[in-house]
Amino acid sequence: MSASDGNYRQSALSVAASAATRELTDDELLTMLQEACFRYYWEGADPHSGMARENIPGDDRIVATGASGMGVGALIVGVGRGFITRAQGVERLTKIVDFLEHAQRYHGVWSHYMDGNTGRTMPVFGMYDDGGDLVETSFLMQGLLAARQYFHGASPAEQELYRRITALWESVEWDWYREKPDSSFLYWHWSPNWTWQIHHPLIGFNEVMITYLLSIASPTHGVPADMYYSGWASQSERAQQYREGWGNTKDGNHYANGNTYFGIKLDVGVGTGGPLFFTHYSFFAFDPHALHDRYTSSYFDNNRNIALINRAWVMANPKNFPGYGPNAWGLTASDGPYGYVAHAPDKDNDLGTLTPTGALASFAYTPDASLPALKHFYRDLGAQLWDIYGPRDAYNVQQNWYSPIYMGLNQAPIVVMVENYRSGLVWKSFMSNPEIGEMLKKLNAVSAK
Predict the structure, then answer these.
(1) Residues 33-57: pLDDT tens digits?
(2) Contacting residues for 139 by C-beta, under 8 A, at least 6 apart
(3) Residues 329, 360: contact at Cβ < 8 Å?
């Protein structure tokens, strides 16, 4: 190589240089994956609030409450893995807490989407969506409580963060979202303009288990532990119809399932288990090893079986989609050629679209199946699938379609659940909250009845 000056006179040639690529070790590959996805919540965050954007590229005004909670989990991993310093992590979390303290709230509950500059509610889903969203708030609070314990050092900045996160946690009025003092259910939304117009009861099994767990755990606005059984795991006719309605099956309509799919027994879940985010969103910080109830002896095992059934469906490929296989799986909610869809292992919701976070955020459950998927997504499909924040949101080989976006709800679970597989860091941080230990004792007591 040589250089030229303004008169086009060339310099002498430089010394020859050479370089060679090498294959990353499995550990290096995991770290590369985590760091790439982490950057979504670091460089890609809203600059004013520090919160996670709903998707990139997208409307830069919109920050997402639930995705921001998962992003806080990713922030913990970023510090733990040395992607950023601890001081940088504290600074970013302080910015997020500053924003949350001044954002619009509804009996302590944040809305699904907010304007990152003003903190005002953005009713993206329609005029009724102009109030509090209890589920998104529970995802946010799950991340904040993990951070409260992780950033609990002796410095004044960390001590102040602990105090402020505690104040936010204790001001969420979980009990308000019962609608009535004797209600069997928690409800998803409340609006000062439309009150209970949406009237969506929280009934499992799906992604919202953490909402009941945190509601029971709250030291200031808690609900009785037996709401886990009257609401979340309800046996009522309303609950059965709810499960049948979205699952289009009677399998699991009583919450317990008990059937075997592809030789894999499913204790809890509707049909073949549903989209994989059911096993990610409520468990990115809450450790499913710690939970059992009347219907399963281990939610970790149950979540693992949901992932294995998901993979087995893709391998069986009953709809004959190209690109499916033992190393190409992961049916979950994501972008798709037909818009945002909760892709799932059933005839109605399998559209040929695979979502990398499905397999990669299942690392804690299925490492032997998730690692080959990572290698396939990166080494075989990387030219089309890989970009600045790691794997793009989804792809569909039949349609020759690769998502042009990343989603806040899908990159963070990769970062956090891979770390839970590697070190258990976020699980350990969250489970060290004393309120969570007390909640589990209450739940064990009602489970034994």
Answers:
(1) 999 999 999 999 999 999 999 999 9
(2) 65, 66, 67, 69, 70, 210, 281
(3) no
| pLDDT score of 157 | 97
User: One-letter amino acid identity for 397?
Assistant: V
Q: Which two tokens stand for residue 176?
A: 């308000």
End-to-end CA distance of the chain: 79
Cβ(63)–Cβ(114) under 8 Å?
yes
How many other CB atoms are found less than 10 A from the CB of residue 193?
Answer: 10
How far is it, in rounded angstroms, from Cα 401 to Cα 192? 42
On whether the CB atoms of residues 144 and 426 are closer than 8 A, the answer is: no
Q: Which residues contact 272 (CB under 8 A, 6 or more apart)?
A: 251, 261, 266, 309, 310, 313, 344, 345, 346
* pLDDT confidence band for 1 (50 / 70 / 90): low
pLDDT digits (tens, 9 = 90+) for 312-341: 999 999 999 999 999 999 999 999 999 999
**Cα–Cα distance for residue pair 107/192, rounded to 1 Å:** 10
Read off the tokens for 326.
């033992």
Q: Which residues pair with 189 in a beta bridge?
A: 133
What burial class does residue 27 get, using C-beta atoms within 10 Å of its C-beta: 0-12 exposed, 13-18 middle, 19+ buried? exposed
Q: Which residues contact 52 (CB under 8 A, 6 or more apart)?
A: 40, 41, 44, 45, 46, 63, 64, 67, 68, 70, 71, 408, 412
Gap between the Cα atoms of 286 and 383, Å rounded = 35
Report the interhelical angle of 434-447 vs 209-217 (nearest 10°).
Answer: 100
- Inform me whether the pLDDT recorded for 183 exceeds 80: yes
What angle (nearest 5°) sits at the alpha carbon of residue 188, between those of residues 186 and 194?
110
Per residue in 222-254, pLDDT (tens digit) is 999 999 999 999 999 999 999 999 899 999 999
H-run or E-run covering 260:
strand 260-261
